[in-house]
Amino acid sequence: MKLIGSLASPYVRKVRVVLAEKKLDYAYELENVWSPDTRINESNPLGKVPCLMMEDGSPMYDSRVIAEYLDTLTPVCKLLPPNGRDRADVKVWEALADGVLDAAVLVRLEKTLRPAEQQSEAWTTRQMAKVGAGLAVMSTDLGESPFCTGNQYTLADVAVGCALGWLAFRFPEIDWRGDYPNLARLYDKLSERQSFRDTVPQQ
Question: GST C-terminal domain: which residues (predicted)?
Answer without folding.
Answer: 83-203
